[in-house]
Amino acid sequence: MYLKRNNTKAKVLLKCVCLFVAATFAGCNDDVFTENFLPEAPLVNLSAEADSVVVRFNASNWDVLGLECSYGDVGTSATSLSGEPLELPLSGGGNALVSCGNDYQCLRIEKRNGRELLFALDENLYDAPRQVYVYVGNDCETKVIEVQLAPTPKYVVDSVAYDWAAYYSWKEDLRVEPAYSITVDNRNNMQPASVTMHPYRYSKCTTVFNSPGKIWSEQNYRLVFGDPLPKMEIPDVVDGNAVMRGREVEFGLEQQITDYGRDEDFSVAVKVDAGVRQTIYMYNGIRSYVLPYTVYASCPWSGRRKTFAGTVMHRSPEGYFVGRDEPETDSDE
What we know:
Blueprint (H helix, E strand, L loop, with lengths): L3 E2 L3 H18 L16 E4 L5 E5 L6 E7 L5 E5 L5 E2 L9 E7 L2 E9 L2 E9 L5 E8 L4 E8 L6 E7 L5 E2 L5 E11 L7 E5 L6 E7 L7 H8 L5 E3 L2 E3 L2 E3 L4 E3 L4 E5 L8 E5 L4 E22 L6 E20 L9
Parallel strand pairs: 2-11
Antiparallel strand pairs: 1-5, 3-9, 4-10, 5-6, 5-7, 7-8, 8-9, 10-11, 12-23, 13-23, 14-23, 15-22, 16-21, 16-24, 17-20, 18-19, 23-24
């Protein structure tokens, strides 16, 4: 958890300028600044293959003053080595643990002595490198260490748990929705006509995911899991009851439409009387359920874990029936 938003570069630079001005009036003499603590600020490259780097200093007269990310959607936090909260900029030359990140990125910085600063990449789930600028210095001088964070491997779904006690299905109130219709003009014929209709040819299932209190963002799930999104098994409805029988949907899409799974070539013959024009409708009964879920995921590379909880609502056809408009004849025109 990140406790405060990053300072912008302008704010950090302004603070450093103020420190420099104060030091100028105070007199930055040899007693205060006896050695150049970091002659040249290095560029630190972190990746899945090289996830930590130690920067060594020539002196211990410096502190971590602030951090800035190339994007403004991260926060920072700092503690002592024993866990007490600290505020940036640090002062007094003490040791500290500093982190910078959000739900998709984490850079860890450790100062355990005055001569070394450890940079460690815990993860970068973004699909492009991210830059973090770390300001270090004292009252006389500020240096900027640029840290490049390469993308790291994505998460995988380990398991899915359902809260079956909270499963709810509309067993009694079966909704009816039209699947498709066809109009047959048999006004010029003296014999009844027969039309073939397919109850399940256009039948589809709809699955909607919901995460309470959050706006669903497909892009965020793609950051975590990559592309394609992982699949998870959800139950079908049989006689109003949930039955696991292999139906899979993509986890991360808020709403998706999938095939019903019944024989699309199954057909019924519908008769239209002689001398009439009539529209025939094929209807499907719709059975729905709502079921809470918890998805457990982990990153094999980092060992970090994430949990996603919410509800899934699934709507699927159940049965069919044929409806029709009132027949029209030539005399109706």
